[in-house]
Amino acid sequence: MFGGLQTNALGQIGVVESLIAQHENYIGTQPSELRGAIKVYAVASCVTRLYAIYERFVESLLSDFLDSVPELIPYAYLSEGLKKEYRVGISHILGKLENERYSHLTHENIILWYHEAISNESKYRFVTEALTRHDHNLRLNVVEHLASRIGLENIRAWLTKSEEITSLYEEQTAIAEQLDAEIRSFIQLRNDAAHGTLEALEGRDNLKRYCELIAALVKALGDYISVSLLKERAQAGRSRKVGVVTEVFEKAGAYVVRLDAGTVLNRGLQVHLLGSNYYLSETIVSIQVMGEDVEQLTAERDAVEVGLRCNVNPRRNAELYVDVVNPSLEPTL
Predict the structure, then answer these.
(1) Which residues of the chain have pLDDT under 70?
(2) Is the C or the N end of the chain the one with fewer CB within 10 Å?
């Protein structure tokens, strides 16, 4: 659901990786007395930009999630904790409008949007900055706090099971502790770079490792928020679970789904595949029933099995969701 945001962030991380290599090559062509100073600038530019990509991604991800909530849940039915956080956040933003960070906001808009929300108007919207505000670097506990503020719990548990995160570490125990320590190390390096106090300069391999770390976080966090939104959409009747993956044929690039009665699938349909620690949003490339290709099918009974092909295969036991074509215009309770 946030694929575009993820793709953009990963593309920017790729640019940083390419600059690391270019900086290394350039430094090697310079007089020896200049190499140390040039490397300070090279390291500083890479890590500060990499952190900016990470921070912007997290803030945008949470903001985009919040932008989707008003279509699904009336303000009156949000948790009391979220409403309290929002009230506190509104006060915070109103007191800091002179800050350049909030220069795109006005007193009038903030008050209007908050009034529309607490008045339970169906077309309310969030001042998302009131809920994504933070004064600390985005260490793991800070990301957890921001997610929890808007009702998203257990993010640490998701990250420790995510393949993108677990593949970073040879030692497969205490993943959360290893991840937390590595994020802290990266942020400390970024802070040192930002304040010009780099005493030990990171090498090319270490900088590339930080790129891998941030790329893994982008993928894992994006999947977590996508799953959270998918579940909210299902609760509001905007999406529906329609089946479960029973078999996967890796070489053929296909999988079998056991469908619920009444499910309608067609080639070109966007589907959501939810596993225990991953999320995929894919377009159906082809459908097979009893070995025959079909453009569309309707499951006339439960447990009908069909073969599907998408660009990326899920794993067994993944749940298949589809969006509801004609949802109610009003949020569903």
Answers:
(1) 196-202, 326-333
(2) C
For the record, the structure tokens of 178 come out as 């290893």
Percent of the chain with pLDDT over 90: 77
Length of the chain: 333
Instruction: Kindly give the pairing relationship between strand 239-249 and strand 319-323.
Output: antiparallel
pLDDT in tens, 258-317: 999 999 999 999 999 999 889 999 999 999 998 899 999 999 999 999 999 999 999 999
pLDDT tens, position by position, 95-127: 999 998 899 999 999 999 999 999 988 889 999
Q: Which residues contact 181 (CB under 8 A, 6 or more apart)?
A: none
Name, in order, each residue with C-beta under 8 angstroms of 278's C-beta and a sequence gap of 6 or more: 162, 163, 223, 315
The dihedral built from the CA positions of residue 84, 88, 89 and 91, taken in this order, carries a sign that is positive
Q: What is the SS3 assignment for 110?
A: helix
Q: What percent of the chain has pLDDT over 70?
A: 95
Return the closest-CA partner of residue 127 out of 138, 117, 136, 137.
117
Residue 260 per-residue DSSP state: P
Using DSSP, state whether 272 is helix, strand or coil: strand
Q: What structural domains and CATH numbers belong to the chain?
A: 3-234 (no CATH), 238-323 (2.40.30.10)
**220 within 8 A of 165, measured Cβ to Cβ:** yes
Within 127-269, strands assigned E span: 239-249, 254-259, 264-266
**Residue 27: Cβ within 10 Å count:** 17
